[in-house]
């Protein structure tokens, strides 16, 4: 139990001093509370009552997060389940789930999601010793089953490996904020954010099915990020591969498997895409645009642009102006 903090007025103390003491005490009180558990949640129409709604294909009912620190445990038991669907993402630590009639304890570690369907019994426990951090969302709609199936989440899947990623937590935090602020069109945005989570899960399922490794995926993502950040500079594929401890042939082969094109083709594609935007939205000359996207020779840039887009940079700009 936490002690109640009361306003205390010291004889001879000014209001500023008294307020300062109270704020310090309040801060200590908040620190003690945070040290037990952190939570943040939001509910559609501020209602905690679960519901089924088929007025739209996908509707987010509520979402939130729990992070246990010193709180001994946080159990959930819904023997009749809920009317909506639920997805839980274990961001760190682990959680204990009890599935089926036998109710055997299944430890679900960080980097997994758990999916519950309507009216499915729910029983799970978070323990402080495990430092469990979980993000969750409840959702309903007229086409949820087909939407889940389209993203590779079959009807019999209840625990899915996703890998740990800040992208998941980022999306969940945005969902919580959107539901709390209720700005125009927030319900549509919530559905789109939830679909982003489904897409991320589907990509992981696809990678797992094809036997790709986490190491390989991480290396290729780093390469893509590096190329996106530096496409306008002179990039040495050999130099990049060497800096990551990879042979050039191994890097090029695996990058093509991951991205569908070679590293140099990816860089050229990024240059042309950005040149296209500059031709559409600025008055820069072709020579200036060539330099901006990484070409010292404007004639070579024009040849590359024509090869990629089928027209010269000047003709492309003219076609945009005529629209």
Structure notes:
- By secondary structure, the chain is α+β, with helices and mostly antiparallel strands.
- Helix content is 47%, strand content 20%.
- It has helices spanning 15-36, 144-150, 166-181, 186-209, 214-230, 237-243, 248-259, 263-281, 286-292, 298-309, 313-321; strands spanning 37-43, 59-68, 73-78, 85-92, 94-99, 104-109, 112-116, 122-127, 133-140, 159-161.
- The protein has a six-stranded antiparallel β-sheet with strand order 1-2-9-4-7-10. Strands 3-8-5-6 form a four-stranded antiparallel β-sheet, with no helix packed on it.
- Helix 3 packs antiparallel against helix 4 (186-209) and helix 8 crosses helix 11 (313-321).
- The longest helix is centred in the middle third of the chain and has 24 residues, at 186-209.
- It starts with 14 loop residues before the first helix and ends with a helix.
- Residues 1-34 have low confidence and may be disordered.
């Amino acid at each position: 139990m936490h002690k109640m903090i009361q306003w205390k007025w010291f004889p001879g103390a000014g209001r500023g001093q008294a307020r300062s003491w109270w704020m310090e005490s309040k801060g200590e009180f908040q620190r003690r509370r945070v040290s037990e558990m952190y939570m943040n949640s939001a509910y559609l129409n501020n209602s905690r009552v679960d519901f089924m709604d088929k007025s739209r294909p996908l509707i987010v009912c509520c979402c939130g997060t729990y992070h246990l620190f010193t709180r001994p445990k946080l159990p959930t038991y819904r023997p009749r389940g809920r009317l909506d669907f639920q997805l839980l993402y274990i961001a760190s630590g682990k959680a204990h789930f009890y599935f089926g009639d036998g109710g055997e304890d299944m430890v679900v570690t960080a980097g997994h999601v758990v999916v519950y369907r309507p009216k499915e019994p729910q029983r799970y426990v978070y323990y402080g010793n495990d430092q469990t951090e979980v993000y969750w969302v409840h959702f309903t709609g007229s086409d949820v089953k087909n939407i889940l199936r389209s993203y590779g989440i079959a009807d019999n899947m209840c625990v899915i490996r996703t890998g740990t990623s800040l992208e998941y937590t980022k999306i969940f935090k945005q969902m919580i904020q959107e539901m709390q602020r209720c700005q125009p069109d927030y319900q549509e945005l919530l559905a789109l954010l939830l679909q982003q989570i489904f897409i991320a899960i589907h990509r992981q399922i696809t990678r797992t099915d094809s036997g790709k490794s986490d190491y390989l995926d991480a290396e290729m993502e780093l390469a893509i990020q590096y190329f996106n950040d530096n496409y306008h500079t002179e990039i040495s594929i050999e130099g990049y591969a060497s800096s990551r401890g990879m042979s050039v042939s191994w890097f090029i082969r695996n990058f093509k498997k991951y991205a569908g094109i070679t590293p140099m083709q990816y860089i050229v594609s990024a240059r042309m895409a950005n040149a296209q935007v500059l031709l559409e939205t600025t008055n820069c000359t072709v020579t200036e645009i060539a330099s901006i996207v990484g070409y010292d020779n404007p004639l070579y840039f024009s040849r590359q642009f024509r090869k990629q887009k089928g027209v010269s940079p000047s003709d492309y700009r003219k076609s945009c102006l005529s629209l």
